[in-house]
Each structure stands twice: as C-alpha cells, then as structure tokens.
C-alpha cells in the first residue's frame, strides 16, 4: 500500500535561490536536517542520475531512536529529475535492518513563484510504513522552515 506525505511553505526568496539551496552540499547540511538532528553529506554528485549520501544524527536519541543505528539515520538519495528552477525529484533509500523502513521513497520538491517568493511543496510517495506519518510531515515542515531561514537570510 502506497502512502503519500506532504508539506508546503511560502519562502521569501525567488525560485532560483531556493533551487540553488536544494543542490548545494553545504546548504543541504545546514537546512535539511529537521529540528533535533544534524546532518553530514558523505557523497555528493548533483546531477540527474547522481545523488548524495547523508548521515543524520539525532541530538537526543532517547526520544527518537534511529533507523540505521541507535542515534543515526543513513539515507542514500538519488537525483531522479532536475528541472531548474521548478522541481527536484529525489529517490531515498534508508539503511536499516528493520524491513518496515525498506523500499524507495520518492521526494518531489515543487517550486512555484508566489509573488516575491516561492511556494515550496514537498510530496513524499511510497513512504516506508515504519516512518510515522505525523512525525514525517512534521520533519518535512521543519526542514522547510530551516530552508526558509537559510535562503531568506542569504537573500
């Protein structure tokens, strides 16, 4: 059974600026980890067919045990489609022994001009059943808030 999670936010920056932050290694390490986590990119290839590997570390693993280890989530992300400055489609596979986290989740980042800013909508499809929907949508919203703070400060 396929599940779809989503979140959106209007960001006070033009689509090209937001798109740039989606495809910059240092930017991703700064804004992508949701609240309560920090991220490190281990591999980086920002082109269609490329991707990245991110290690997300929980700042307090007692509240949120990791999928890969007690304190981490490791995810291999591929860039399935890049359409500047409108869309980034990623495939994500978590490293986990628990089969409830198995499978390939697709994350689509849509960027639509909205006045002087950009409406960013993130749609996650084929979400593994081990990922709680409310927690996932809260995490996506947190990443979007971080992205807004990051690009709005730079703009």
Automatic annotation (TrEMBL):
Among the Pfam families in the record, one is: AHSA1
- SUPFAM superfamilies named among the record's database cross-references: Bet v1-like
User: Residues in domain Activator of Hsp90 ATPase homologue 1/2-like C-terminal?
Assistant: 12-152
Q: Which InterPro entries match?
A: ASHA1/2-like_C, START-like_dom_sf
Residue spans making up a coiled coil are none
Q: Which family does it belong to?
A: Belongs to the AHA1 family.
* Name of the protein this chain belongs to: SRPBCC family protein
Give the originating organism.
Streptomyces spongiae
Lineage of the native species?
Bacteria, Bacillati, Actinomycetota, Actinomycetes, Kitasatosporales
